[in-house]
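Why do we care about 3D structure at all? Because function follows from shape, and shape follows, mostly, from sequence. That is the central idea of this module. The next example makes it concrete: a single protein chain, its amino acid sequence, and then its structure expressed as tokens.
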Amino acid sequence: MQKSALLEELSTPYAVPAEAVAFYRENGYVKLKNVLSAEAIAYYGEIITDLVFKLNKLTKPMEERTTYEKAFLQIMNLWREDETAKEFVFSKRLAQIAADLMEVEGVRLYHDQALYKEPSGGITPWHADQFYWPLASPKTVTVWIPLQATPLEMGPLAFAEKSQLVEIGRDVEISDESEALMQQSLTQFSLHETPFDLGEVSYHAGWLFHRAGANVSGKARKVMTMIYMDKDQQIMAPKNSYQKADWETWLASAPVGSKPESYLNPILFSHS
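And the structure:
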């Protein structure tokens, strides 16, 4: 596929079915098939993978790592490292889907992150992402893009349906403790854990509890993510040390109460 065709794919609107919007509104996540072509995933996946291994600083043996460190290699804001990665992160198609699912006029980028679960990589414990974000509104969403077909043995993302509405665990960081607490607390919610086909992606709300199993496949589980927020999101005073760090790193320490309008948080899609 020509580069021009890849760029056209990333900017072409995706018709989000009304039932997908309704499902997301109720359950806090949705999986969508055939969002990206195999050619686009192969081309941009290679660029992203090269950046992950170039920028990764986590080199200690698996047995010496914490539960969090065992879960994945985590490299953030690839869009600022490479122009081709930026093409992918700034995809209007992917951002438009986020806006449609959240039922907002437009979305800004919070940040991107690659999540590579190595062979023998451990579980990703139960957690809700927005614990880390000093953002006032729940209108946030992450697109989770596997860069290969992802069977259960690779540790695909799993969702506790409708848990975006529960207050339990919102003050707990990702850890063994969050896994134990939420294993007990989330029994009231249905667990959705299914493989991802190539080209299938998921979107999950910032307050939805989710986890991933260990990677026992022998191959790396390569995933790229982008976090979007309502373009009219407001910055709130950080409630914990992680939110303070995020405020400084991803929001350029913009004033509390303001919109996140710095160079780090461009509008990636708007219906108007």
